[in-house]
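Suppose you are handed only these lines of text.
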Amino acid sequence: MDWGMKNRLSQVIKPETGRTVMLAVDHGYFLGPTKGLEDAEKTIEPLLPFADSLMLTRGLLRASVCACTSVPIVLRVSGGNSIVGEDLSNEGITTSIREAIRLNVAAVALSIYIGSKYEHQTLMGLSTLINEAQEYGIPVLAVTAVGKEMVRDARYLSMACRIAAELGAQVVKTYYCDDFEKVVKSCPVPVVIAGGKKIAELDALKLAHSAISRGASGVDMGRNIFQSRYPVEMIQAVRAIVHEGASVKKAAKFLPVPKKKR
Ligand code: R5P
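From them, the structure of the protein bound to ribose-5-phosphate can be written out as follows.
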């Protein structure tokens, strides 16, 4: 691996722990004004000191993040669909490598949809992106998006992660599932998990803890942080789990004590 690629990867996955807390705020690329991101700048700004990297589209980056930031950027470069469109898997590359370089990003991210109607298109998109990004030492994060009809189990997610790694992705993002260690063990590159839909704070911390203790290299978490009533406390709690190996109980100390327990 060349120096530039290693340097960028170490901006995303922290060498001190080999882990990462990525803050995902890219949802608008197919959801539009997602709850909690309507005024994205206001939401993102207080979370930045606790994020190892920020994952978002170029539009949101330009509009909502100060160019003075030192937080590494993971640029979402796939899209072309919407939640109300014909098929969510119908994605292509939306943002060029030249643009990624111009924006000084640490990595680029693209979704693949294994088992969907557009599987081939998204896998060829990933391959094209990797070929281009490799030229400039830019790591690629493959996001294993799951179509409505697919089951998020270890068998399916192992296949999706492994295919992404075989095509050359340097990091893979997937979902947590039962037997998650099988997904990690059969994937030769670091695996991070998405948080998924908003759940109770404690459950989200349990999810992060289960994933880390079963071999995940970190989280790429969005809604369970920015849709929480306590986003700054949540990201700190997640950080403690990811980087310090904190228990759920210890991490939960970042959260305010519920009124009834006072
Ligand atoms: C979905 O495709 C987006 O890439 C999100 O970044 C991803 O799902 C992680 O966000 P969340 O933790 O909200 O699921």
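What can we learn from it? Strands lie at 20-24, 53-56, 73-76, 78-79, 92-93, 107-112, 140-144, 171-174, 191-194, 218-221. Residues 24, 26-27, 55, 111, 143, 145, 194-196, 220-224 surround ribose-5-phosphate (CB under 6 Å).
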